[in-house]
Design a protein that fits this description.
The protein has 704 residues and is of the alpha/beta class. It has 28 helices and 22 strands. It has a six-stranded parallel beta sheet, sandwiched between helices. Strands 1, 4, 5, 8 and 9 form a five-stranded mixed beta sheet that branches.
């Protein structure tokens, strides 16, 4: 998402920077060994990175620990440990507009005199080796998805990126003109007019107290003025409604690591609660819900509440998600300041996710409607004129078939799996998580397998079901789900009575470079999360743009995809948000579905009796136990509708012309999901800047 956003910001000519951490080790490489996920460090800088340029001249200090002195001259944060932040710049070119923006990533370096004064000469070696402790801050990316793990190193990372970035922003604000590093501006009155900071989730929430610290403690701005400046500068994007994903840091950890920030958070929370109490006298429950500090056995800082209090705009990332944000997650805050809440539906860049990954389809589209769609994706609507054009229908189907052949070859070479390229490529690729319901996909695969086995002479639409994605290393259930997928594959792919009719494949090490290969080859895109759990998703949009049809629930951006293309051009099934909520209220009982649906019962019995794990019959007992007794995501409740919907998918696939006409309609209606549209909305409605499609003059040409 941020990569798409950077591409769009450059293409729209915005003077925008992407800031983050230069991790030495990114997300782990995934290996599958005996059907289980094994993680391996991804030393991506091993051979160097030609796109980055170190900028030691802009290196900045970041402070940790220490204590706070309240003196007559003001507040001082003293006796801190210093880590240096070394910036590395990567160019971000816009599309053919002579604009190149910057992504600046910070790397941690030990300060020159790191701890040397602490040691006598005898400990010199030890002291030098200890420099690693400081430099560990940018060592490794935490690989959790939608899960908060309150580790001190993670909090250090969050403050590190924020502190370095804010110093950088303020240095740039103070400099009068490009290239001048002497501070000129001293008044911060105009700061929010010149600077917009978008908080991508709560991870950089510390930008709010850090900006306050800089303004109040270092620049001597009055508290109330500083608070206005901070709020007008910051805006917050929420990315999840799952409670286990929300960041809630222990106050004790904060007190030690960032003592001044804790004081500032207490102070701003007090002012905020005074305001709420004045409006809702006697409503102590509301105060508790809206406080930035959670007063339980372990006092915690609720980073989401901090973001809402300290921002002038809060947005979700798809319409249904933004509605849930207003009606449940931040209900009290929405009642207080409804004007603060917005929606900004996510998008993807057509430069990477069409031109680069699917040149065959891109060329076809250019032939029909020219190439203006590349920077104005809404123009894809012109393709609706060709939905009955036999030549175009044939050409679209041909490109898809070529992409499938190419991917089949890749799969055979890389993983030694032989697949039938004329089968339906049925694909679910995303992080492995219970809410994304890869288990529902598994149940369909087993049901399909059972139908083929019990009707050997019947003709079936051949399918290759591919599931891919990484599980967080500590997420036991997600790792079990991967084992289940690989185990189903072992049985199905080696059963001679099935032959070419069904294959189940786990795609190892799913990542952007693999997505660029698999998405153009997909026939069916699975987007089957429980309604109300997937904030938006962007894979769904990539598949739509690349000529796959979607089977999905009314969740995340699927809702808007169905609205754009027409619900009849997607395979929509399952409970809506209201039905999920109603089922939660009256009590979800998995047993009831198990008893009522024979095919579901058969599949569950096969998993639990060891049909898919003959060497270890009890292998999947924890999955079965979860599904039967504590499934938060109600897999069984959508099973029947899902299987019926999959039958409709088969029926349409038997009519290649009708299938391809639906594909064309989907491509033609995917224009809304360009990140150019998303960024234009952020720019106009949150940042207060106007995008420009005018290319800059070529740097090597004299200006006229």
């Amino acid at each position: 998402l941020p990569a798409c956003f950077l591409d769009s910001m450059a293409t729209l000519g915005l003077a925008a920077y992407g800031y983050g951490i230069r991790y030495e080790f990114g997300i782990f490489n995934q290996k599958i060994v005996d059907g289980w996920q094994v993680e391996e460090a991804d030393d991506w800088l091993h051979y160097g990175n030609p796109w980055e340029k170190a900028r030691p001249e802009y290196m900045l200090p970041v402070h940790f620990y220490g204590r706070v002195d309240h003196t007559p001259e003001g507040v001082k944060w003293v006796d801190t440990q210093v880590v240096l932040a070394m910036p590395y710049d990567t160019p971000v070119p816009g599309y053919r507009n002579n604009t190149v923006n910057t992504m600046r990533l910070w790397s941690a370096k030990a300060s020159h005199d790191f701890d040397l004064q602490e040691f006598n000469v005898g400990d010199y070696i030890e002291a030098v080796l200890d420099r690693n402790l400081a430099e560990n801050i940018s060592r490794v990316l935490y690989p959790n998805d939608n899960f908060f793990e309150g580790k001190e190193l993670r909090l250090k990372q969050e403050y590190f990126v924020v502190a370095a970035t804010l110093q950088d922003i303020i240095r740039r604000f103070k400099s009068s003109k490009f290239g001048c590093r002497d501070p000129v501006r001293t008044s911060f009155e105009t700061f929010p007019e010149k600077v917009a900071i978008q908080l991508n989730d709560t991870h950089p929430a510390l930008a709010i107290p850090e900006l306050m610290r800089i303004l109040v403690d270092l620049e001597n701005v009055d508290w109330d003025k500083a608070w206005e400046i901070t709020k007008q500068t910051c805006a917050y994007t929420n990315h999840t409604v799952l409670p286990e994903a929300l960041e809630r840091w222990p106050v004790s950890m904060f007190e030690k690591l960032l003592p001044r920030h804790l004081e500032i958070i207490y102070a701003l929370n007090q002012k905020h609660l005074d305001h709420v109490a004045a409006l809702y006298p006697g409503d102590s429950d509301r105060l508790r819900r809206m406080s930035v500090i959670e007063e339980e056995a372990c006092k915690r800082i609720n980073m989401a509440n901090l973001c809402v209090v300290g921002s002038h705009a809060v947005n979700g990332v798809a319409r249904i998600h933004s509605d849930i944000v207003k009606s449940s997650v931040f209900k009290d805050f929405h009642e207080l300041e409804p004007e603060k809440f917005q929606n900004k539906t996510n998008g993807i860049t057509p430069r990477r996710w069409l031109l680069l990954c699917n040149p065959g389809l891109a060329d076809l589209i250019v032939e029909q409607i020219g190439e203006d769609f590349i920077t104005d994706l809404s123009q894809l609507r012109k393709l609706l004129d060709f939905v009955d054009d036999e030549t175009f229908i044939r050409d679209v189907a041909k490109v898809k078939q070529e992409n499938k052949l190419k991917f089949s070859t890749y799969l055979e070479k890389k993983y030694k799996v032989k697949i039938n390229p004329s089968s339906m490529f049925d694909i679910q690729v995303k992080r492995i998580h219970e809410y994304k319901r890869q288990l529902l996909n598994c149940l369909h695969a087993i049901t399909r397998y059972n139908r083929i086995r019990s009707n050997p002479s019947q003709s079936f639409v051949p399918r290759t079901i591919m599931i891919g994605g990484k599980a967080a290393p500590g997420y036991y259930m997600a790792k079990m789900i991967i084992k289940l997928v690989t185990s189903i594959g072992e049985v199905v792919n080696n059963d001679p009575s099935v032959g070419d009719k069904l294959k189940v494949i786990f795609l190892e090490n799913y990542r952007v470079s693999l997505a660029e290969k698999v998405i153009p080859a997909a026939d069916l895109s699975q987007q089957i999360s429980t309604a109300g759990t997937e904030a938006s998703g962007t894979g769904n949009m990539k598949f739509m743009l690349n000529g796959a049809l979607t089977i999905g629930t009314m969740d995340g951006a699927n809702v808007e995809m169905a609205e754009e293309a027409g619900e009849e051009n997607l395979f929509i099934f399952g409970m809506r948000v209201e039905e999920v909520e109603a089922l939660t209220r009256c009590g979800y009982n998995a047993q009831e579905y198990y008893e009522r649906l024979p095919e579901l019962r058969q599949a569950i019995d096969q998993i639990s009796s060891g049909v898919f794990s003959p060497g270890d019959p009890g292998c999947f007992k924890d999955i079965i136990n979860m599904l039967m007794n504590n499934d938060r995501f109600k897999v069984f409740a959508d099973y029947e509708a899902y299987i019926k919907c999959q039958d409709q998918v088969d029926e349409l696939f038997l009519d290649p012309r009708e299938w391809t006409r639906k594909v064309i309609r989907n491509i033609a209606c995917s224009g809304k999901f360009s990140s150019d549209r998303t960024i234009t909305e952020y720019a106009r409605e949150i940042w207060g800047v106007e995008p420009s499609m005018e290319p800059l003059p070529q740097p090597d040409l004299p200006e006229v």
